[in-house]
Design goal:
The protein is α+β, with helices and mostly antiparallel strands. Helices cover 18% and strands 29% of the residues. It is extended and about 100 Å long. About 2% of the residues have low confidence.
């Protein structure tokens, strides 16, 4: 029934409002159709009869095969013909991250050796053989370590005289037996524990120039290549298919066929299933701000409002460390009809989701164990300095041989030379004329990266030593080396941050796997070292 309203402008507008003729609501809620033929005709006019039936899936049979990852190797650098041989890998042995990200067979530092010695003492006490500790210390004692001056003594300084050297214990146990009688059982238990925490003897995949990992993974007849793995956890998007590489010996495929019950996809804002069910207002698709070019957002809204209750899902467990490909899905609906569900976008080679670049189909589940990441052992920032026309590698923190974290900035503030160096001639003159400095002093943990031309319109940054009065810069950690060089593209405007961190992951069989992860992340922008030459400082403040 129309109602007329007059706006302040004097124009008229009409609003249609339904008016109930009675006070009861049962008739309206019943939604009776008094002319079924008219309703059927309207459905025919709108093309509703051209659609499929509304049968719901009640059973699905999914079949396919899983191809496990059988080998891995460090990938050769660009331009290098020599290829590392394949190393066999069993997903049940542990996460692949521990092999790819590990630093390889490095000598354990004093902190790890002291920790191993303390555990050996603990095993002696549990076995009731504490009386043998003096004999063990007589053979496997740490070399005398000078006590550092300055900060308080650390754990290594306190425990080193009281525990045996784990490095020497491991060397004798691997060679045969301890040089102390009656400790064979304790030595065997300790060696099994030591092999679980000692560095893994694997080849290194880390590129010290680009601070990234390169590795290949053999999976059946395919080889997946990780060109720029940043060390943040292996996943399917970390690799691409390498069609020109030869795979290793393939492990047998694991075929499967399962019967599953599909369930309706549920999400916030899904259309109500029942006719008179009131929908909540937690998700308001009508309030979304879209423009004519927001195709993706419009498709999501259309899916949520129109087709949201037409989608079903079912879980499918696949083996870790495998490439799973589905052969087909046969669905039985509520009418008893069966249909074969084909792969979406099978006729369009450019349409794909969750598939490795270069492959046609398949879901790659990498054997990755993120684990618990500990306190950083080393942090290096790569940053540009436009005022000095240089790039810098800034060693914020390193771990010394004793396993103790050293804040290089804090140490520099304690040892930095005072004042600006002046020439001898100027220092003898009156202070009223100001002072002249040859150069400013840059903190010793700022390591200069000097541009060097290697080809036409191509440069790299080379790490050099900065000679300055009272201070010298040199790398003290493991990420940088005195002969390090970095391609120009690896030091962008936002910079980069490279870290070393310990990781402890637990695998699905309950085993523990420790390693040291080297990870590269975006930096925090440009920096300024304050490096200046030929500085004249006035004796009084300029107006």
């Amino acid at each position: 029934m129309p109602r007329k309203h007059v706006d302040q402008s004097g124009s008229y507008r009409y609003r249609l409002e339904p008016l109930s003729r009675t006070d009861e609501v049962a008739t309206g809620l019943a939604a009776r159709v008094h002319d079924p033929a008219w309703a059927l005709a309207r459905q025919w006019q709108f093309g509703e009869f051209a659609g499929q039936d509304a049968g719901s899936p009640v059973l699905a049979v999914v079949s396919g095969r899983s191809t496990p990852i059988s080998a891995w190797r460090p990938a050769a650098a660009p331009g290098v013909r020599e290829v590392h041989p394949w190393l066999p890998y069993d997903p049940a042995s542990g996460p692949l991250d521990a092999l790819v990200e590990s630093e390889g067979a490095t000598e354990p530092d004093e902190y790890t050796r002291v920790e191993g010695g303390a555990h050996f003492v603990r095993l002696l006490d549990e076995a009731g053989l504490s009386s043998a500790l003096p004999r063990v210390l007589a053979v496997y004692r740490f070399d005398p370590v000078p006590v550092p001056s300055g900060p308080p003594a650390g754990l290594v300084t306190l425990l080193a005289p009281r525990v045996p050297d784990a490095g020497r214990l491991a060397a004798d146990l691997v060679a045969g037996a301890l040089r102390v009688d009656g400790l064979a059982e304790v030595g065997a238990r300790w060696l099994a524990w030591w092999r679980g925490i000692a560095p893994v003897d694997t080849p290194d995949t880390f590129d010290p120039h680009r601070f990234e990992h390169r590795a290949d993974f053999s999976c059946g007849t395919k080889v997946f290549h990780a060109e720029e793995y940043l060390g943040d956890g292996l996943d399917w998007f970390s690799v691409d298919l390498d069609p020109g590489a030869g795979p290793a010996a393939a492990a047998p495929d694991l075929p499967f066929s399962h019967e599953v019950v599909p369930a309706t996809v549920r999400f916030g804002g899904i259309p109500a299933d029942r006719f008179w069910e009131m929908e909540d207002a937690q998700v308001d698709f009508g309030a979304a701000e879209v423009s004519a070019l927001d195709t993706g957002r419009l498709l999501v809204i259309a899916f949520g409002e129109v087709y949201g209750n037409d989608w079903f899902l079912f879980p499918l467990e696949v083996p870790v460390g495998s490439l799973t490909t589905l052969d087909g899905i046969v669905v039985t609906d509520s009418f008893g009809d069966t249909r074969t569900v084909r792969r979406a976008g099978g006729a369009d080679a450019g349409w794909n989701l969750f598939t490795v670049t270069g492959t046609d189909d398949g879901l790659l589940v990498m054997p990755s164990g993120q684990g618990a990441v500990g306190e950083r052992l080393e942090t290096v920032l790569l940053a540009r300095d436009e005022l000095a026309n240089l790039a810098w590698a800034i060693e914020k923190s390193v771990t010394d041989l004793r396993g103790e974290l050293v804040d290089r900035r804090e140490r520099w503030l304690r040892t930095a030379p005072k004042g600006t160096p002046c020439t001898a001639a100027q220092s003898s003159q009156s202070s009223g004329t100001g002072s002249y400095g040859v150069q400013t002093v840059v903190p010793d943990y700022w390591l200069p990266l000097v541009p060097q031309a290697i080809a036409l319109a191509s440069i790299r940054f080379v790490l050099v030593q900065l000679d300055q009065p009272g201070a010298s810069s040199q790398p003290l950690g493991r990420l940088l080396r005195p002969d390090s060089s970095v391609p120009e593209e690896e030091v962008p405007r936002e910079g980069a941050e490279v870290t070393r961190s310990p990781v402890l992951a637990r695998w699905y069989d309950g085993s523990w796997h420790p390693w040291v992860r080297r990870e590269k992340n975006p930096g925090c922008g440009e920096s300024s070292s304050g490096l200046l030459f030929d500085i004249v400082r006035p004796s009084e403040t300029w107006p």
